[in-house]
């Protein structure tokens, strides 16, 4: 059990995952820094055949990755990926 603002909740609080910075590196990989201080290298190649991520096959679009509201986005926010996905892989 845990309490937030005077409200008791069952179970344990869930960790909030938030990306602080992203840099694209070779072969469609993302170098990520998370709010908890951890760093990860995430390979986007397995995702590029999914319809929503196919525009990222264009290296210019892929290299335009940036952080918005704690996750990685591309194309003015038209494409994003959940920070939990980036953290757990």
Describe the structure.
- This protein is mainly beta and 89 residues long.
- It has one domain: NE0471 N-terminal domain-like (2-Layer Sandwich), CATH 3.30.2020.10.
- It has helices at 59-62, 83-88, and strands at 2-4, 7-9, 19-25, 29-34, 39-43, 66-68, 71-74, 79-81.
Which consecutive residue ranges, at least 5 long each, have pLDDT under 50?
none
How many distinct beta strands?
8
Main beta sheet: 3 strands, antiparallel
> Under the CATH scheme, which class?
Alpha Beta
CATH superfamily: NE0471-like N-terminal domain
N-C termini distance: 28 Å
What order do the strands of the largest sheet run in, or round the barrel if closed?
3-4-5
Average pLDDT rating: 94
Task: Find the structural class using helix and strand composition.
Answer: mainly beta
- Assign a percent range to the helix content: 10-25%
Coarse shape: elongated
